[in-house]
Amino acid sequence: MPDKKVTGLHELYEKDPIEADKLLWGRTSDPVSRRGFLQKSALTALSLALGSKMVFAENFPAGMIPAGLAHSDLPFSLPGKRAGLVVLNDKPINAETPPDLLNDLLTPNDLFFVRNNGIPPENIDVSSWTITIEGESANQKKTYSLADLKSKFENVTYNLTLECGGNGRAEFTPPAKGNQWSTGAVGCAAWTGVRLKDVLEDAGVKSNAVYIAYYGKDTHLSGEAGKVVISRGVPIAKAMEDESLIAWAMNGKNIPVLNGYPLRLVFGGFPASCSGKWLAKIVIRDRVHDGPKMTGQSYRVPCKPVAPGTKVPDDEMCIIEKMPVKSLITFPKTGAIFEKKNQLAIQGKAWTSATKIDQVDYSIDFGSTWSKCTLKAAKNRYSWQAFSADISFPETGYYEVWVRATDSEGKAQPMLLPGWNPRGYLNNACHRIAIKVS
Amino acid sequence: MSPRPDLLPALLGLFNFVLVVITATLLYLLFGPNLIDTYRNQPVAMEQNAYRPGSDDNTTEVGQDKVVDGIHLQTGLIYAEGFNIVRGTCTACHSAKLVTQNRATREGWMEMIRWMQAKQGLWDLGDNEPIILSYLAANYAPQETGRRSNLQVDEIEWYILEMN
After folding, report:
1. Is there a contact between A41 and B93 if contact means CB atoms under 8 Å apart?
2. Are B130 and B82 contained in the same domain?
3. Is the Cβ pair A11, B76 closer than 8 Å?
4. Quick check: B47 and A86 CB within 8 A?
5. Is A75 domain-assigned?
6. Are residues B100 and B53 in the same domain?
7. What is the extent of the structural domain holding B109?
8. Percent of chain A topping pLDDT 70
9. Could A86 and B51 be called an inter-chain contact, meaning their C-beta atoms sit closer than 8 Å?
């Protein structure tokens, strides 16, 4: 097993061993370093000698494991997540899914990417969790428990794709600041909950409503109490769509803590940052919402196209609403070698904020010629769609397989990077994998 | 006094039994947890080939404050002039990974600092600011990759794809 260190184990332990302990051992079991083993053996010996119950790593007193583990280079998995996610940042946690792990029609909970802006809430008590609807354009302030939501409103399930607005940022030149997402800040899950519009209407929406805004229970990195980490939202028309959900389940299970347990918003087709996690409050606004990360340059692109590297003043930046058409090759993993007599069966996913994907094509000659992939229909709008193709190769050698999706609005993915923007959003350039035919 | 002859086999048996128990216990203490762990789900190493340099270290021996190939292993920061101040200042809220992932000019870094000061509770950096900016601008400067860079072919892990 290769033992590359790609996660910030050291950073975690360096800064706060007890916190790291909790994060790593309190909620997950995973790798143990050599020294961890020795310590464990020592403890086992100790407990045998004492005649008491055997102590395992998860019960280790804080401060013991870190001494051994903090020097380990073994990767660890995040709470509720499978190893294999690429951790871009461990505080706040930001982790993406490599393309070959997105081959499932519905992304498993433990493979779904994580974009946290702050620190998730702890000691979540579902029975006392409430959500409050209020705001200038709400007829009344109304609070619901989770049980109220489940019993008062129709329960619905939709397959919805969530993609971070900054997915693909790593490719922009000049570079854009922020987490350098490659391709994996995307996933599609079956979300179960109630329609946001049903709840909004139950509280009462005034005719002057413009926007809805969320507030969640995550806390700010600076530790400043009460400082809002992120509060974004969507225009009222989006909030009123059938597929806009307040969700409590993901693929039939609890939502992972890192993805917003016990309650979150889900808006397919919009940047995932609109889909507030650890949802506690929704404010119906009579203006465009102005919470943290709604304003300035966050989740905004220049209203008019600019040359790469241009400085754009805040008042010429517009909020990103719809996410562009995009696709990924999810099988095989880049780097495949196979014999020329074989056809390569590729698989992938394509998604859009438009009604649906109309067509996906592949090219093995850098866009000189394109051939159609077989494309499956989605269960509902904003779900990604699976595609596949069997590809023959004319000659042995190095190839790249490129795929390009076209949606029902006639928009297709560019082969080059799309319009540069200061914060590096909306890169929907074609995905490609490298292969060798022998 | 010699033991009664009819007790000898029993004593030998007991001795053997104790020896086996001790050996088994020792073996368990030495290898047991490792053995148990080989039957548990093991973490799979993550790959990060496609990412920018500076954010990962590929060594296995990590000591306190060790610097290998110019990289401070614990933080992943480049070990260069200003390192201590940058480490002290820039890992207070988030991990250094947020720094090492990013690339910008001096001006670009200054803008990020101003943004954190305005929105994220970052304090006035005082005399340290020029030191921090020089460090960042020198070690995390932008690289020109054009409108689309090549796939990093030498970093791809090639494998035989089994087909039926």
Report:
1. no
2. yes
3. yes
4. yes
5. no
6. yes
7. 46-139
8. 82
9. yes
Q: Domain ends where: A294, A319, A344?
A: A319
Say yes or no for a CB contact (<8 Å) between B151 and A342: no
Q: How far is B69 from chain A (nearest CA, A)?
A: 15
Specify whether the CB–CB gap between B141 and B153 falls below 8 A. no
Report yes or no on B57 lying in a domain: yes
User: Do A362 and A231 reside in the same domain of the chain?
Assistant: no
Q: Which residue of A has its CA nearest to B74?
A: A10
**What's A297's domain CATH number?**
3.90.420.10
Q: How many domains does chain B have?
A: 2
Q: What is the mean pLDDT of residues A392-399?
A: 96
For residue A152, give how far its alpha carbon lies from the nearest alpha carbon of chain B (Å).
39
Nearest chain A Cα distance for residue B52, angstroms: 8
Same domain, residue pair B82 and B14? no
Pairwise CA distance, residues A196 & A202, whole Å = 10
Cα-Cα-Cα-Cα dihedral sign, residues A379, A382, A383, A385? positive
If you measure CA to CA, which chain A residue comes closest to B153? Answer: A434
pLDDT tens by residue, A104-161: 999 999 999 999 999 999 999 999 999 999 999 999 999 999 999 999 999 999 999 9
Contact B160 A77 (CB under 8 A): no
A90, β-bridge pairs: A93
Q: Are residues A157 and A269 in the same domain?
A: yes
CB within 8 Å: B101 and A342: no
Domain range for A419: 326-437
Residue B151 included in any domain:
no
Q: Are the CB atoms for A375 and A327 separated by under 8 Å? A: no
Question: Is B118 among the domain residues?
Answer: yes
Last residue of a domain, one of A271, A297, A319: A319
Query: Hey, are the CB atoms on B43 and A76 less than 8 Å from each other?
Result: yes
Question: Residues with Cβ < 8 Å from A356, sequence gap 6 or more?
Answer: A377, A378, A381, A385, A407, A408
- Do residues A254 and A223 both lie within one domain? yes
Radius of gyration of chain A (CA): 23
Q: Is this prediction's ipTM beyond 0.85?
A: no
Residues in B touching A92 (Cβ below 8 Å): 94
Are A10 and B42 in contact (CB < 8 Å)?
no
Question: pTM value?
Answer: 0.77
Q: How far apart are the first and last CA of chain A?
A: 26
Say yes or no: B51 and B107 in one domain.
yes
Is B32–A90 a contact, with Cβ atoms under 8 angstroms apart? no
3-state helix, strand, coil in chain A (%, to 5): 20, 30, 50
Count of domains in chain A? Answer: 3
Poorest-pLDDT segment among A133-147, A186-200, A366-380, B3-17: B3-17
Residues of B in contact with A10 (CB under 8 A): 62, 73-75
Nearest to B45 among A75, A92, A174 (CB): A75
CA distance linking residue A344 with residue A333, whole number of Å: 12
The closest CB to that of A227, out of B61, B121, B122, belongs to B121
Mean pLDDT of A209-214: 98
Does A77 map to a domain? no
Q: Does B164 map to a domain? A: no
Q: In terms of domains, do B72 and B134 share one?
A: yes
- Cα separation of A31 and A321, whole Å? 41
Q: From residue B89, give the alpha-carbon distance in Å to each of A118, B85, B95, B96, B143.
A: 18, 6, 11, 10, 25
Same domain, A98 and A52: no
Residues of chain B contacting A1 with CB distance shorter than 8 Å: 42, 44-45
B96-138 residue pLDDT tens: 989 999 999 999 999 999 999 998 999 999 999 999 999 999 9
Closest-CA residue of chain A to B164: A342
Q: Are residues B105 and B57 in the same domain?
A: yes
